[in-house]
Design goal:
single chain; 230 residues; alpha/beta; 8-stranded parallel β-barrel; 11 helices; 8 strands; globular
């Protein structure tokens, strides 16, 4: 895949108007967008459907987790929306329900292992007995076993996860920051080039592009860095 197919721009903005402005500014340079909670609850679900209908690829970042029937019902409807990727927390029961519900569709289901804003102290506070690296690998094994389409993890774990999931599953990494960029609330980050070298198949970049003085220029710089590796 070329760099444009691997760069996912996160539309992490509060209003549809801002999202539409960013998409217009980026024009044909970007074909893949992520829509998460913030925009979804401001009319972003219909916007996601419209973008998909216009030929864009959409990564719907909903991080689903519920009882099996509820997860399955949600996945069935999301598949009908024309989305390309969907996240759910990598709990085995939820993943099994989602995989069954997505059968026959082109929807790529992604298991969220450990959020990139969390470190070992955060996991201990939440009651987990594993450090982030160990928990990521355990959930990657479980996702592969149930037939998920891919994994979401920090680029720091990408190389180890790639060994577990093999060459075909998607490996999507948020927390991507160009050299010198502000980390924000992310604790485990990596540059675009290093993430690809580590085994990532898709990179999610939000703030370094959408908050840049010139989003198009920022996106092109990241694409160029990716292209050098690819």
């Amino acid at each position: 895949m070329i760099a444009r197919e691997r760069l996912i721009v996160g539309l992490d903005v509060p209003t549809l108007r801002e999202a539409e402005t960013i998409v217009d500014k980026l024009s044909d340079d970007i074909i893949f967008y992520k829509i998460g909670y913030q925009l979804a609850f401001a009319g972003g679900l219909e916007f996601a459907r419209d973008l998909a209908a216009s030929g864009k690829k959409i990564f719907l970042d909903m991080k689903l987790l519920d009882i099996d029937n509820t997860v399955a019902s949600g996945v069935e409807n999301i598949a009908k929306m024309g989305m390309s990727m969907l996240t759910l927390h990598a709990y085995p029961k939820a993943m099994r329900a989602a995989v069954e519900a997505a059968k026959g569709s082109s929807l790529c289901l992604l298991g969220v292992t450990v959020l990139t804003s969390m470190d070992e102290g955060d996991l201990i506070e939440a009651g987990y007995e594993y450090d982030p690296h160990t928990l990521v690998l355990r959930r990657a094994e479980q996702a592969r076993a149930v037939g998920m389409g891919g994994i979401v993890c920090s680029a720091e774990e990408a190389a180890a996860v790639r060994k577990i999931i093999g060459p075909d599953m998607a490996l999507v990494t948020p927390g991507i920051r160009p050299a010198g960029a502000d980390k924000g609330d992310q604790k485990r980050v990596m540059t675009p080039a290093d993430a690809l070298k580590a085994g990532s198949s898709h990179l999610v970049v939000a703030r370094p592009i959408v908050k840049a003085p010139d989003p198009k220029e920022a996106a092109r710089a990241i694409l160029a860095e990716m292209a050098e590796v690819l």
